[in-house]
Write a structure and sequence with these properties.
Oligomer: single chain
Shape: globular
Strand order of the largest sheet: 1-3-2-4-5-6-7
Radius of gyration: 24 Å
Strand content: 15-25%
Largest sheet: 7 strands, mixed
Number of strands: 7
Number of helices: 8
Order of helices and strands: HEEEHEEHHHEEHHH
Low-confidence stretches: 1-39, 203-212, 243-257
Mean pLDDT: 75
Structural class: alpha/beta
Length: 257
C-alpha cells in the first residue's frame, strides 16, 4: 500500500493567502469608514462647502428681504452645497436620489414681533416606507449633524453675520417632520452662536429641557410691521409637528410644488 509522505522541501516564496488580498483589505476599510463617520464626531470642513447666492443681497437684513438656506449633501463626493436665496432652491432637490434620501436641510430667517430667529426643517420619515424603517437612525443622524449644518450656514453667509452680528443671538428652532409621533417635534437649540458649538449628543435627547427656557414665536394674527415675512417661505405643512393630532405623514415641500 502506498503511503503519503509530506515533502520536506518548502517553497521559496510563500503563496499569498486567497482570503486576505490588497483589494479585499481596501473593501473592508471602505465598509468600516461609513460606520466610523456615523458614530464619530461631526466635523465641518469649509473646503467641502460650495455656496450659491441666488438673488440675495448680503447687505440686506433678513428682516427686510427674505432669506432661506437649502443645504444638500453628496455621498459620492462628500461635499455640501448651500444655496442662499429668497425662496427654497427647488432645483437643488430634484432627482430620484434626493427624493429617496431626503437628507436635505432647509431653513429660513424670520422676524417675529421684532425678534429675529432661524427656523430649520429636517425630514425624518414619511413619503416612502424606507424612511419609516430607519426613522430612529435618521433622527439620530440629523441631531448629530445639525451643528455642522449650522456651521455651514454661518460660514457660507459669513458676510451677512459680519454686517449684522446681532443675528448670532437669534434663537434657532429645529423642526423634525415625521409620521412617527416620537420624532415629530420642535426643539429650540438656543442662540445661533451657542447652537453651532453644541456637542453631537446634545440634540434630540430631552425635548422638555431644550424648550423650557424659550417659547416658540408666533406671528401676529393681523397684518403688522413687526413680523417678516408674514408667511413661511418653506411650503411644508403649516401645522407645527406637536400640533398634528393624528401625526399623519407630513407632506414634503417637494410634493407640494
Amino acid at each position: 500500500m502506498a503511503c503519503l509522505v509530506a515533502s520536506p522541501k518548502l517553497p521559496l516564496e510563500p503563496k499569498p493567502c486567497p482570503f486576505v488580498t490588497r483589494t479585499s483589505y481596501k473593501k473592508k476599510c471602505k465598509s468600516i469608514a461609513p460606520v466610523a463617520r456615523l458614530f464619530g464626531p461631526a466635523i465641518f470642513e469649509a473646503s467641502k462647502l460650495k455656496v450659491l447666492f441666488l438673488g440675495v443681497d448680503e447687505k440686506k437684513h433678513p428682516g427686510k428681504l427674505p432669506r432661506t438656506y437649502t443645504l444638500t449633501h453628496s455621498d459620492i463626493t462628500s461635499k455640501l452645497t448651500l444655496a442662499i436665496s429668497q425662496t427654497i432652491n427647488n432645483s437643488q432637490l430634484q432627482g430620484w436620489y434626493n427624493r429617496l434620501q431626503r437628507d436635505e436641510v432647509v431653513a429660513e430667517w424670520k422676524q417675529v414681533k421684532g425678534k429675529m430667529s432661524l427656523h430649520v426643517h429636517c425630514h425624518i420619515s414619511g413619503g416612502h416606507f424606507l424612511l419609516d424603517l430607519c426613522a430612529r437612525l435618521r433622527f439620530f443622524i440629523f441631531c448629530k449633524e445639525l451643528p455642522v449644518v449650522l456651521k455651514a450656514f454661518v460660514h457660507g453667509d459669513g458676510n451677512l453675520l459680519n454686517n449684522y452680528p446681532e443675528l448670532q443671538e437669534a434663537l434657532v428652532w429645529v423642526y423634525f417632520h415625521s409620521n412617527i409621533p416620537e420624532f415629530n417635534r420642535v426643539e429650540c437649540w438656543g442662540p445661533l452662536k451657542e447652537a453651532v458649538e453644541r456637542s453631537s449628543g446634545d440634540g434630540g435627547t430631552n425635548q422638555e429641557s431644550l424648550i423650557s427656557n424659550w417659547k416658540l414665536p408666533e406671528t401676529c394674527q393681523e397684518l403688522c410691521s413687526c413680523c417678516f415675512p408674514p408667511m413661511s417661505l418653506i411650503p411644508w405643512s403649516q401645522k407645527l409637528p406637536q400640533e398634528n393630532e393624528n401625526h399623519g405623514t407630513q407632506e414634503s415641500f417637494q410634493q407640494q410644488i
